[in-house]
Each structure stands twice: as C-alpha cells, then as structure tokens.
Amino acid sequence: MIFVTVGNATQPFTRLLEAVDELAGKELFGSERVLIQSGNNADFHSSRCEVKPFVSIDEFNRLMKDSELIICHGGCGTQLHAIRVGKVPVVMPRREKYREHVNDHQLQLVEALAAEKKVIPVYEPDDLPAAIAEARKLNERGFTLTPTPMLSLVAQAIEELAHTDSLN
Fold first, then answer.
1. Contact (CB, 8 A) for 156 and 76
2. pLDDT grade for 165, boundaries at 50, 70 and 90
3. Inter-residue long-range contacts of 29-34, CB under 8 Å, 24+ positions, other chains counted
4. 2-to-13, 36, 41, 71, 132 alpha-carbon distances in Å
5. What percent of the chain has pLDDT over 70?
6. Where are the domains of the chain?
C-alpha cells in the first residue's frame, strides 16, 4: 500500500494530491492500493485512489507502519514519524510561493533531512516518478534509524511543543 498524507494545515496542497492522482492514472503504482489523507482540500476527489480527509492517530500510525511507500508533505511530525518506523519517505514541501504555507520552513527542513539521506525530496510534481523509484529501492533494502543532530533537534522540539500543549 502507498500512503499519501498532507497533514492538517489549512492552506490547500492540491499540487501534491493532483500529481499523485495523475500518476495513479498512468498506472505508476500498478495494482497497489493508494490511500490519500487529503486534509483540508475539500475540493480534491479521485476516482483512482482512496481518499480520506483525515484519519485517527491510531490509523495514521498503522498506515505509516504498514505502507510500502510514504509520500508526504514536509511537516516535521510526519517526516519524523516515517523515519522512526523505518521508512524513507518521498517528501514534497509546502511552498510559500504557491501559497501552500505561510513561509518556507518545510523546504528548509526537507533540505536538511535530505542532506542526511533520511528523505527523498521532491520539489515539483514532475520529479515524483524518479523520487518514488529511488524510495522504493531504499525501502526494499531496509532502513536503520541512526540518530543525527537534526533528527534529535526535531524530536526534541516536537516533544516540547506537545508538552506545552498538554499544559494549556
């Protein structure tokens, strides 16, 4: 199964969703099930992929673990979760220039994690097929999480934010 997730940001991210749907139409995924968590993209529909706006945290965890391929936005929690379950995700950061986010922090994080070979970056839809092929090869070989300064900082920031939220 292929799991595509765009998180819960309120800005649209149809650039990734439509690109995946188009590849499914070209049969890039063969007969594999493609599940898209479409988030706040109410106008996005697909006749080729299963679409759910949101999934529970338990289902999210199961999908991350059970998927052969993860394609996602550049949210730090999503990327870190994929890495922690031993996957090398294909990651397209939301971009300010496309009005997909308020700034380019996702781009910066994706570039940093790509430099550490933890994610396969995709900046434009045309780059998806090659990135998917590369991720499939890496995920077939297996991936062992080795702590790096970047991953430790991201994990610490997420834990601090979660702790702060639980206090409020």
1. no
2. low
3. 29/2, 32/1, 32/2, 32/68, 33/1, 33/2, 34/1, 34/2, 34/4
4. 18, 8, 19, 8, 10
5. 84
6. 2-167
- Residue 168 has a pLDDT of 46
What pLDDT shows up at residue 141?
Answer: 82
What's the pLDDT tens digit per position in 58-110?
A: 999 999 999 999 999 999 999 999 999 999 999 999 999 999 998 888 999 99
Q: How far apart are CA 124 and CA 10, in angstroms?
A: 21
Give the residue among 77, 158, 71 at the shortest CA–CA distance from 119.
71
Residue 114's alpha-carbon distances to 5, 40, 136, in angstroms, are: 18, 26, 16
Instruction: Measure the CA–CA gap between 5 and 50, rounded to whole angstroms.
Output: 12
Instruction: Give the right CATH number for 2-167 from 3.40.50.2000, 1.25.40.180, 3.10.20.90, 3.30.300.130.
Output: 3.40.50.2000
